[in-house]
Specification:
The protein is an alpha/beta fold. The protein has three helices and seven strands. The strands form two sheets. The chain has a five-stranded mixed β-sheet with strand order 5-4-3-7-6. It has a two-stranded parallel sheet with strand order 1-2.
Length: about 160
Amino acid sequence: MPREVILTPDGLAKLKAELDHLSTARRREVAARIKEARDFGDITENAEYDDAKNEQAMIEARIAQLEERVRSATVVNASELDNDTVRVGSVVHVVDGSGAPRIYTIVGSAEAQPEALKLSNQSPVGRALLGRRQGDEVVFSTPRGERTLKIEKIEVGA
């Protein structure tokens, strides 16, 4: 049974764009590489052919993974979001225990990019913030110890 994938509309568009690119342009490029490598002759000792076939297998696996994610996706409807409660799709302005401000966007795990402060709803911070309201102080555990965040503002994500 496929696991539900929660996506923002932007995340779904990015997955579909990657799927389209892999299904069209990348497949053609690899097929051309395979054909070219076959033209070199004996494929039993042909490194170019082996490399192209390996790349083809990786692309096909990624295509299958993306198709499954798109098929099982639940897209967050921005009109259902509000500024009262943190949900997937919310932009949350917080201040940490040291007083440093941060702005996190809560997304599904398929869209998570911690370096861009797009946090998965399944991450320690994401789980701690979900369902909370402006003014709430959230205490949660991380591998580096306990952390505290105070929610200053909640916005509806794009």
